[in-house]
Design goal:
- 2 copies of one chain form a homodimer.
- Chain A has about 850 residues and is α/β, with parallel strands linked by helices.
- Chain A has 3 domains: about 300 residues, Rossmann fold (3-Layer(aba) Sandwich); about 350 residues, Aspartate Aminotransferase, domain 2; about 100 residues, Aspartate Aminotransferase, domain 1, CATH 3.90.1150.10.
- Helices cover about 35% and strands about 20% of the residues of chain A.
- Chain A has 28 helices and 32 strands.
- In chain A, the strands form 6 sheets. In chain A, strands 5-4-6-3-7-2-8-9-10 form a 9-stranded mixed sheet, with helices on both faces. The first copy, chain A, has a 7-stranded mixed sheet with strand order 15-26-25-24-21-16-17, with helices on both faces. In chain A, strands 1, 11, 12, 13 and 31 form a 5-stranded mixed sheet that branches.
- Chain A starts with 5 loop residues before the first helix and ends with a helix.
- In chain A, about 60% of the residues are buried.
- Chains A and B meet through helix 1, helix 9, helix 10, strand 10 and helix 12 of A and helix 1, helix 9, helix 10, strand 10 and helix 12 of B.
- Chains A, B: This is Dethiobiotin synthase.
- Chains A, B: It comes from Jatropha curcas.
- Chains A, B: Its main location: mitochondrion.
- Chains A, B: It holds the Pfam family AAA_26.
- Chains A, B: GO terms for molecular function: adenosylmethionine-8-amino-7-oxononanoate transaminase activity; dethiobiotin synthase activity; pyridoxal phosphate binding.
Chain lengths: ~850, ~850
């Protein structure tokens, strides 16, 4: 009886993956991004259980909307048409049950019973059905050859109720997919060999909406209203098995929840409401049939009166009078409901419209010259689903369109749609269970589990302690304090200075670091980077740059080949051609290069620099090495020759200089391995993580350290402890998000990109397209590694560098294609999540490639003028 | 028909408040803190709807547990007793429905049908009922005088099924509260004049558990198992109207969810599961009656196979054979379920036990000398509910006990239990709708709403821009950059230095600040504070202290009087006695003091200091004033004379030195007003907020600034923009939490402490107790203001200061009383939330007062020895 059969589990896990992948459908097609109009209200009708009267509510709304006195004619004397669109994407029990037919026939009959009757053009269509449903539907079908999938039923029925030609109201009812058995859609679909992918449902729904609510001149004077009625309860599976609340999530239409007025109905209604909220839906009203149990009182109390509750009169058991009386007595609540929905719709639109102006009035965006951001360029993000933003646009008409978040919400983003809802549930749970609890001297599950996962994962083989903080900058400041303490103890500095006051501070500690590095924006983190656009007096009046900053060799792809680029200090004659070009990216990382002449050149340069620095005075010490392994992010997505970084690590290890890896950007699969240290083939003494650690959801950082580093803070006095902490250190929500994400990303069952044996992500960026792009004349270099695809545009003078606006027109075009990118001056990049499918990445590259061609041509034209 | 009646709304809001307050019941009584044993498993039985067979599941578990072969005798030949405790806290439809009677009679009958019969002692009690239920129950009651409330029914029935005397199993069934009508408990309670407060239900439940599962020697050999069966669905209202999932939350017993195997049941089961998770419950198994719809398949897929699903055979419609056959055929699933519950219980206990050791192995706590934190002093926090931790303890026996979080989770915590669940829902929604989306050049609702609320609230009258960051430290670093830029532009420094390289940096900017101030742990924030325990080379090798740091006058209560304490620089003869003592705390803040001699003394001192600093060189400028208004937190909860801070602000304003208020600790009602600036009666140019801003849930910070400050960053180049930002800047989750909390705290409908007219919190700390405490000889000073109650213990030498362990024994005792505090050396404090009731605060003071007495006596004894 017990369902613990592992084979069952496995098969369903596979099924689950199938469904998950299909969430990304919009980006997977080469068609334009998903989009839907905002010119007319579209509402989902949800039920907190099955058989609570969703269709009665749809019918009542249709009746309210269509069967009221004709709208006043406007000044130009053209009549405003009214159109009610009823969509039932998924219908089971067909044809005996057909909700679209019910709405169609009920409205026709209600219209004709008025005296005089209301003018109404009504139609009902059923587009596709399973074979069994089609057969039951009768008629003659050529179904001999047809065994699997859905049959094109294309059934249509029409009725006209006419009083006069003017002011005709129109009712369009459509069932998109129908199955015969009156069971849950996933079961009917399976039993009737008529499984439909989520993508198909969503595309057909999008198509119906666009056809019926389309932006056309003649529709300017159309008043339309659309409801999309779900099947069963909010979390009933759709035809593929995906829960309907997940299936329809990319649209995130606002909803009406049909609740339950019976005994036990308060609970079911509240729970259904919470399931919808957890997925980011807005519920505009709750409506239910009155059973005399005053369920509305606790419901209103629960909803804090923020969501109106509408009561419907009891539905008669005796249906003989065709519910005409019932609809009559329900006209008041349905009119109220319609009013609520219309005003919520216009309120939403008003807010969306005013947002850009308000944003430019009250925000102070970081890294943004406000003078360069006019109101009309502000992006209004209505929501996100997995890797995609839903963006509000107001070009001619209002609509919502999808854009792939290729800036990975500024380098943090990781979840696909499935992980997002998992995280949402976990966030609710963490807040409900812990809220926030203080960390020092305490332990609680999410913090402990997170620390354990970090030490077993990115810290494996070297780290034994986890120090939590809030973001990359703070993690770096902590790392520096750790390294300096360790260095001081090792070098006997500690004893001299422990009690010293400022005047006695003879010793000065500095870092060894690379030019182009970036470790965060707080002063301590800034001090560890070389002078740059970010460090001038204008930005950082207190910056001095406390380090020895070396110019590193870099690698990149150009004209389809991976090349080495050497800094000025390295005389080319010493380097063989063999060392300058790589046959593949893998070759760059190969350990065998440690035996090369180049390695010896690197090492001796580093040795020379360290011995020369800072000159004769003995009071200045290099107390730490700090590097971003493999990729320098903010510096311009530069890939540093890993051989050089290995040489740095080895030389510092030899001198007992603590080694800090800044993996804030590179950690957690950003570069295709759980840590960039793994790619480099070295271990640090201290490493910093943030960004993707929480799946890209909320701020949390960790500084990992070896037991030796930890021990340099042990003593009898609290004053010897590391006195750096933030109030939310190891906050339960962040740790919970990290626990889920760290596990999710590395598990081949949840992340199909993980190649389990190699502990690497499969290649996400199409090799051929990458080479093609790297060969465009407008492209100076390409770096494709893990989830990162970066390229530097060929640019000179003020077109190059961080402040450049050179890429702007290119990125504008890509946004129209549904790709949201943000430049680093003339460097642009696509970043996907660790779970993003290679197919989606390929689509991004195709779009980028096409727009680069245009860009190139435009630049060439400009040049020739 | 529509329920928009505002009077109804109002009355229910009041009702709601009543319920909310009662959540805090455990702290409101003088009795010991809530606690329950962990020596035996206790499970909640939840239903995803009513009538799904919760009681069948309870009965099945009882049968599995009691009616299996007697346990093997142990080595000492004593028999292990088995006891199954079935508790039904809330029963409606009584006496015709009585689930405890059902379990009682069914078990007795099952036991006797075995051959030979199982030995069983069974009892069933009904403790309290409404009068109507009592009357229906029959018998002779003295009910004439009894009209309202609950009647002490104290009904008890017993049965014995005996085979032999050894190995007797015991079944205890108890109904705690019963009502007659078969409707939702809140409705029955209301209709039968038998409303029961949440606190009463919880206390009686605690009592029953403690009686039956008590830690006694003889019970050492008892095997017990307890289920607490809820009424209706998970979110069905309890007798007071509080949803049951909220009512029982302080216990957070793990649960079994009885799901729904019918059509539509997948959705209801998933939604109920999500409602429980949202409240921080752990659901260990889902069990439901099989209706042949294979609902288990989508459920297992949804649960990702992490929660086992158990199927029960269909319950026969024909009950004539008394379900004996059904229980027979269900023994396998019930045994499995029991196994799952027992192993989850021991797994939970194992994890709780190992947590302190693991924590000391893998954590590196901030501000913690690990050598001083042995494993046994680590606090294991199992959860929090509102202001209280649920702490796991293993003294002799394992149990969970409640501790009031008086360190306010390190100065951030704000929500009571009601706000916590509201925030949990909002966090789920924000994650589901937005996850995280990048901020620069974008707008999304939570960020916009949060910025608007900040500008209308704490920024009202001065601020026009919101700059988001992650925590107090980063907010301060941003504020400094803002102030210095403004100062530079105003003073023509900008033009000289814009393009300057390091060598050219002639100009040095410093801050004017107060000794004892603390602005955060990153280097930039540290540089703005005076040298302290936190700034030595040992901690901050890069610290130099870039400021003019003044020693401020402070105020505090001592011997029941508010006194002024002057720093050395101020000659006492200049100050009248009148100025040294205040008749009340309000007097300290009075604006009339601006006319006093003292104000002139303060002003001229400040003027003198500014004119003398830093001597002859003209390159060093005071570019900003930075203060924590009213209270210096980390510096030791020092209350600075507001008159002195006003003088500072006025003098700097006169000199066009930008003024920064660090309201990270003081903001959002911490001190009884939404901002401390309001108490001070001054406005800044820039102010920083964090901690309580999100209700104390997750990290988020904001730096607010005037339009003039903002304008000093406007120009043609991006390089003139403020280039400081963190990846999660303005993250949707943080902004959503802030939006909810900012509104909640200031609204008198949700925060009963708010005095609407005055925009102040009512006095939370009992005046008499405060005076008494301030008069203890062991107490040097007291500061009670808003949500803060701080006191400094009289201490000398190494007993004083940040590293002191002087308060340790005192705080240990208070933890035993259920009060969790953390010292700042010899300064200890209680911090409550903005919504905490004065009664709870009074209880805290009573406990503190009593323990101070003990502490005092112990110190006196030590001294006399």
């Amino acid at each position: 009886m017990m369902l613990l059969l592992s084979s069952l589990r496995r098969s369903h896990r596979r099924l689950l993956h199938l469904h998950r992948q299909s969430h990304n459908l919009f980006s997977a097609s080469t068609s334009p991004p998903l989009q839907f109009p905002l010119n007319h209200p579209i509402y989902m009708i949800w039920g907190s259980n099955t058989s609570l009267g969703k269709t009665l509510v749809s019918t009542g709304l249709a009746s309210s909307f269509l069967l009221s006195p004709p709208p006043a004619t406007n000044t130009t004397n053209t009549t405003k048409r009214r159109k009610f669109l009823y969509l039932k994407p998924v219908q089971t029990g067909f044809p005996s049950d057909s909700d679209s037919h019910f709405v169609f026939s009920k409205l026709s009959s209600l219209a004709s019973r008025y005296n005089p009757p209301f003018s109404l053009l009504a139609s009902n269509s059923v587009l596709k059905s399973s074979l069994s449903a089609a057969k039951s539907f009768g008629g003659c079908f050529e179904t001999n050859e047809f065994k699997y999938g859905m049959y094109n039923l294309n059934f249509n029925e029409k009725k006209k109720v006419l009083r006069d030609e003017a002011g005709v109201s129109e009712l369009i009812c459509e069932t998109l997919y129908a199955w015969k058995e009156a069971v849950s859609p996933h079961l009917a679909a399976e039993r009737e060999n008529g499984v439909v992918e989520d993508s198909a449902v969503m595309e057909m729904l999008e198509q119906c909406l666009s056809n019926e609510l389309k932006f056309e001149g003649e529709n300017e004077t159309m008043d339309a209203f659309c409801v999309v009625e779900t099947a069963g309860g909010v979390a009933s599976p759709g035809p593929s098995g995906t829960l309907q609340c997940d299936l329809y999530r990319p649209f995130r239409f606002p909803g009406v929840l049909v609740g339950d007025g019976r005994l036990g109905g308060i609970s079911g209604t509240i729970s259904a409401y919470e399931s919808l909220k957890l997925r980011g839906y807005d519920i505009v009203a709750v409506v239910f049939e009155d059973h005399g149990l005053v369920n509305e009182v606790p419901l209103l109390s629960y909803l804090q009166n923020r969501v109106p509750v509408v009561l419907l009169p009891p539905v008669p058991q005796d249906m003989s009078n065709d519910l005409v009386e019932w609809f009559g007595s329900s006209s008041e609540p349905f009119n109220s409901l319609q009013g609520i929905l219309l005003s919520a719709f216009s309120e939403r639109l008003r807010r969306l419209k005013e947002m850009p102006k308000k944003a430019t009035d009250v925000f102070w965006w970081p890294f943004t010259q406000h003078k360069l951001v006019p109101e009309e360029t502000v992006t209004v993000i209505d929501s996100r689903c997995g890797e995609n933003f839903a963006v509000y646009k107001a070009q001619n008409k209002d609509f919502i369109t999808e854009q792939f978040d290729a800036c990975a919400s500024w380098w943090t983003q990781g979840p696909n749609a499935t992980l997002q809802i998992e995280l949402a549930r976990d966030m609710g749970y963490a807040a409900g269970r812990f809220g926030h609890v203080m960390f020092p001297e305490n332990v609680y599950e999410p913090a402990l589990k997170c620390a354990e996962l970090l030490l077993e994962g990115v810290g494996k083989g070297w780290a034994s302690r986890t120090y939590f903080s809030d973001n990359g900058s703070t993690a770096i400041e902590i790392a520096l304090k750790m390294a300096f303490r360790k260095f001081s103890i090792d070098n006997g500095i500690f004893l001299d200075c422990a009690k010293s006051n400022l005047a006695d501070r003879q010793i000065e500690l500095r870092v060894l670091a690379l030019k182009g590095s970036y470790h965060g924006d707080t002063l301590g983190a800034m001090e560890a980077q070389a002078p740059s656009s970010y460090t001038g007096f204008l930005q950082q009046p207190w910056y001095t740059g406390r380090g020895l900053f070396l110019d590193p060799p870099t690698v990149f792809m150009c004209n389809s080949k991976w090349n080495l680029s050497l800094p000025d200090w390295l005389h080319y004659e010493n380097v063989t051609n063999n060392d300058m070009v790589f046959s593949s990216r893998d070759e760059i990382f190969e350990k065998i290069r440690d035996k090369s002449d180049l390695y010896r050149i690197y090492s001796s340069y580093i040795t020379h620099q360290l011995s020369q620095y800072p000159g004769a005075e003995g009071t200045v010490h290099i107390g730490a090495l700090i590097i971003e392994p493999v990729i320098q992010g903010a510096g311009g997505m530069l890939m540093i020759d890993p051989l050089f970084q290995r040489a740095l690590v080895n030389e510092c290890r030899r001198r007992n200089i603590p080694i800090i890896f800044d993996e804030v950007f590179t950690g957690f699969w950003r570069l295709g391995a759980e840590s960039a240290a793994k790619l480099l083939g070295c271990i640090p003494d201290i490493a910093c993580y943030a960004k993707l650690m929480t799946g890209g959801l909320i701020p949390l950082a960790a500084t990992l350290a070896t037991e030796e580093v930890f021990n340099s803070f042990i003593g009898d006095s609290k004053l010897k402890a590391l006195l750096h902490g933030h109030s939310y250190t190891a906050h339960a929500m962040g740790c919970s998000a990290a626990v889920k994400s760290i596990k999710w990303f590395k598990d081949p069952r949840t992340n199909l990109n993980v190649i389990a044996e190699q502990r690497l992500l499969r290649e996400l960026w199409d090799a051929e397209l990458t080479q093609q792009i790297s060969s465009r004349p407008s492209v100076q270099r390409v770096v494709a590694l893990g989830t990162l695809f970066a390229l530097e545009l060929q640019a000179e003078g003020s077109n190059a560098g961080y402040a450049s606006l050179y890429a702007r027109s290119l990125l504008q075009k890509l946004r129209e294609d549904g790709v949201y990118m943000r430049p680093l001056g003339n460097v642009i990049y696509l970043i996907c999540g660790p779970c993003t499918s290679p197919e989606i990445c390929r689509q991004l590259l195709i779009k980028l490639h096409a727009r680069l061609e245009e860009f190139n041509q435009a630049k060439e034209q400009q040049a020739s003028c």
